[in-house]
Amino acid sequence: MAKDERQAPWQGLVEWYEALVSALVVMVLLFSFFFRIIQVDGGSMNPTLRDGDKLIVWGAGYTPQRGDVVIVDDYTSYGRPLVKRIIAVGGDTISIDYTAGIVTVNGEVLEEDYIAEPTFLGYDVAFPYTVPEGELFLMGDNRNASLDSRSSSIGCIAEEDILGKVLFCFLPLEDAGVVK
């Protein structure tokens, strides 16, 4: 009996260790295939997201939709991950009236309560512009301080270059919440 009693504490420790390893493996798999953690770099998404915000991004099986805040892979021509909002998808025609600050997609004015201010800054892409199939037209919410699809240096982004949709901001705590 004394021998069995001495083995019991070690057996409990081994079981606890196995549970910890299993939990770590599950976390690694979840964050490798389903979720990613990304940090915002810059102010182009103000007021929705701020420089330094830490985000949870869902990638598995994601289909890009107008209005979603997404992460663009860092191997694109820009060279680092981008956080932007999908304004138009393949086949959509987008127009921007820089004098009035109004964005239209397929002839309908976008209701954009998430932007910092109306869109007065233009780049070298001429409008109206039809988004090629399989690509996305992205813009930052801080329109007058965002380098995005309005510039040929970024341009439209291929759907396969989207890492996923931003779900949640978790740090800093004062910015924490669901991203809309």
TrEMBL record:
It comes from the Bacteria. Its main location: membrane. It is found in: Cell membrane; Membrane. The active site is at S44, K84. GO terms for molecular function: serine-type endopeptidase activity; signal peptidase activity. It holds the Pfam family Peptidase_S26. It comes from Candidatus Faecalibacterium faecipullorum. Residues 14-170 form the Peptidase S26 domain. Its EC number is 3.4.21.89. PROSITE patterns: SPASE_I_1 (PS00501), SPASE_I_2 (PS00760). It catalyses: Cleavage of hydrophobic, N-terminal signal or leader sequences from secreted and periplasmic proteins. GO terms for biological process: signal peptide processing. Belongs to the peptidase S26 family. InterPro entries: LexA/Signal_pep-like_sf, Pept_S26A_signal_pept_1, Pept_S26A_signal_pept_1_Lys-AS, Pept_S26A_signal_pept_1_Ser-AS, Peptidase_S26. It is a single-pass type II membrane protein. The gene is lepB. One of its GO terms (cellular component) is plasma membrane. Keywords: Hydrolase, Membrane, Protease, Transmembrane, Transmembrane helix. The lineage of its organism: Bacteria, Bacillati, Bacillota, Clostridia, Eubacteriales. This is Signal peptidase I. The chain crosses the membrane at residues 20-38.
